[in-house]
Amino acid sequence: MTDMSRLRNSTQNQGEAWIGLNNNTDGNRTWHWSLPGVEYIQNDSSWNLNGRASWEHPGNCGRKRDKLADVSCDQMNWFICYDEMKKVNKTLYLIQYPRLNWTEAQSYCRYNHTDLASGLNHVDGEEIEAVIKGLTPPFNLWIGLFRDSWRWSDGSDFSFRYWDMELFNDEQSNKTCAMTLLNRSGKWSSDECDKEKPFFCYDDKIILIKENKAWEEALNYCENNYKRLVSITNPEVQGWVQETAKNADSPYVWIGLSYKCTLGLWLWVSDYVVCYEKWATEGKTEGCDMSVGVDRGGQHEWISRRNNETYNFICSKQ
Fold first, then answer.
1. Which helix (H) or strand (E) covers residue 258, if one does?
2. Burial of 129 by CB count in 10 Å (0-12 exposed, 13-18 middle, 19+ buried)?
3. Is the pLDDT of residue 6 over 80?
4. Confidence (pLDDT) at 20
């Protein structure tokens, strides 16, 4: 949503403009989590595809009961919101009223919290069990799981979608390119790809250096050739780092976060303190010779590594 606000504010144009999302996949749908930065990884043990009620229809949205099932997105359910700002004891919230369809539930969570609950640590973890404890089964809950056949032109796996559901129809097979509707809060619809419209370009703000260096060497390289090692201060930057890290030649990539013994805290090279974080479970080890690498695979979480270990690294260009 921060990116959408910046995009709208970058132009006086109030019409339609192409963005880099297209549907040229012959209908091959892929599952995504609604929350940006959470990558979907198939886990068959979490699913019960035969567990739909007799009145439920197969579809492209995920709901949780005891396990997950794919059902019609038009179904009216309770839902679970996630709020990343409320970190004391509780980040998941059960919304029972009003019952909403999946798209309405997503909009509700994004407006009132952060997003629908996304990732297996949300939908299969201890906190959600505490949230739903006492509910009389069977109950159906929307979570932030959906599948579609749309892909970004740069090959990234970003799952953020901002469709204008009054105008967008995913079944219109001849309208396979996405556009932003600047006169409708920047929401998206689609059109035939051979039509001529204004369009938005972007420049990468970060770059992967495929050379293995110790953390201090990586820091000096970035400062001499670009700006600095990348600082991750929000989920959007984490998303770009995740996409970039996938192409690394080393199991981790250095970022600009290190432990400062004199201050007793983790500090970014840009002098920001850590507000947003994505530590791996038991991945945070404090020590005078420790800095942070992002895992190349999995959920691309942060893991403390010794400064003298050598990895690829990511520099900020701006």
1. strand 252-260
2. exposed
3. yes
4. 95
Question: What pTM, to 2 d.p., does this model score?
Answer: 0.77
Rounded to an integer, what distance in angstroms lies between the CA atom of residue 176 and that of residue 193?
Answer: 6
Q: Count other C-beta atoms under 10 Å from residue 197's C-beta.
A: 13
Tell me the residue type at 92: L
Residues 6+ apart with CB under 8 A from 104: none
Domains defined along the chain, listed by start:
1-23+167-201 (3.10.100.10), 29-148 (no CATH), 206-316 (3.10.100.10)
Which tokens sit at 76?
């009216």
d(CA 220, CA 195): 47
Report the mean per-residue pLDDT for the chain: 89
Half-sphere exposure of 113 (CA within 13 A, CB side): 23
Q: Is 264 left (phi over 0), alpha (psi -120 to 50) or beta?
A: left
